[in-house]
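Progress report, Aim 2. The chain analyzed during this reporting quarter is listed below.
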Amino acid sequence: MNGCEKMKNLKKIVHTLLTSLMLIVLLVSCSSSPKGRKVERVYSKSSKKKTDKKVNIKKEKINLEYSAFKKFNLPLPIDNYGDKVDYLIPVNDNFDENFSLFKKYDEKRVLNFYKNTNISGYGDNSPYWRWKTSIKKSDWYDKVRKKVYEISRANYRNVFILEGKQWVQKRISKLSRVKDVKIIARGPSGIVTHILVVTSNNKYLVTKEWNVRKIFATHNDVYGSKSKNDYNMQRPVVKNVHSLPSAYLGFEEHGDYITVYGGGFGHGAGMCQYAVPHLVKDGYDYRDILKRYYYSAKLSTIEEVLGENKKILVGITSHGNLNHKALNIYSNAKLRIFNEDFDISVKPNEEVNVKNKWGKVLIATSNGEIFSSRHPVNFKSDGEFVAVGPIKKSHTSYPHYRDTIVISPYGNGLKVINSLDMDKYLMQVLPSEMPKSFGLEALKVQAVAARTYALSDYLKARYEEEGFHVKDTVESQVFNNQVENDEANQAIKETLGEIMIYDGKPVDAKYFSTSSGFTSFANDVW
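Predicted structure tokens for the chain:
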């Protein structure tokens, strides 16, 4: 082959390679992402300057796009919600609407969105995707009057009363007859932020997500529906509800009754749990999903924050109460019971009785020995678990706890704290917070979120005066309310130590069950 022919062949090869490269680039840029849909978010209009100094921030009057204050010739209240959290911003999880739905005050349009059981989106297989509940209007008005008073008594800053041309926060002594109730403002994701209650002699504003759920609670059954569900809200998902599933709702009157329509279950900020397996099916991995719901957060490790000290102290409740009466404790291995006053051991499956007597922890063994101490007493098994009861959980009255149980006098009863490694803690959180049927990748999302959430609570020291870091209830994360499972433990292992940070600190990794189609700013909730 001569030089000319070689040069021609070389040009052909280069041309073929360039053509192939251009085709690959074109396919990548034009094809739909394996992760399905582009993420639609709502961003904060203003960002606060970062500072380590504490400053007094004046609470300005709110500036709401979706509100009817001007329409009803009412002044704007001051903003009694919290500060914006940069990484907890609204995400669109539905396939049929966008955030423009909440740009202009139009309650009829928003109501139709919540009434529509054909709306689809990530997490639409939840029975709380759409729901409704009804009540006689006169009964509801009477309940609203009582609830506004109760909310004001609990925290007067969450209720405003109109005095002249301004809204004032102060305790309410009593309310007269309720004449009208209106949703007057929403956040950009549709969450109700302000309710106007008109009585025979005044006007009131009720704020905050939890209070909205109380005001609209009917104390009747709530009927739920998955997307395009054949039952179409014919089955109750919860009976005699005292707080509605979410504050994403609207209502309409028909005759002597009102019906409340809504979507979702939970506060609506952060990660939507029911959306996670749907996103996994759409091609997302656990890191992608964390990025979706915790905007700009980065993965780090718990060791970067705590070093080698990864013990967490969990306050144990029964029926939500930290004060326990007489307890029975045993282990399937040798059980060591010790503090500065004594150090004893009992045989496997030998039960000891524990109670508070005259401000001391009194321990009685099966062979009649009695020990007492005013100091906290440790119970540690040579095996994996210590069983403590009666402590009511959904799966048992004698839940098993890992590592060490610490019992101390508490009023006229006992306080129970579980001291254990962070990842062992997660082994009893994940099954309580996400079903194993969601799959391994979804459980990995939950593992990182739960680990980060626990670490955030740990650092906040919310329960420092009680002597522990987190509670075993929804006030922190639900702990040991279901039996452990291999899938959850594998998810913890595959994400070992991983947490999310923002601006060098662990994020407050909020999560909730089901969205209405949109998640929310944290400061539209709390």
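Residues 99-270 form one domain. Residues 1-34, 45-59 have pLDDT under 50 and may be disordered. These observations will guide the mutagenesis work planned for the next reporting period.
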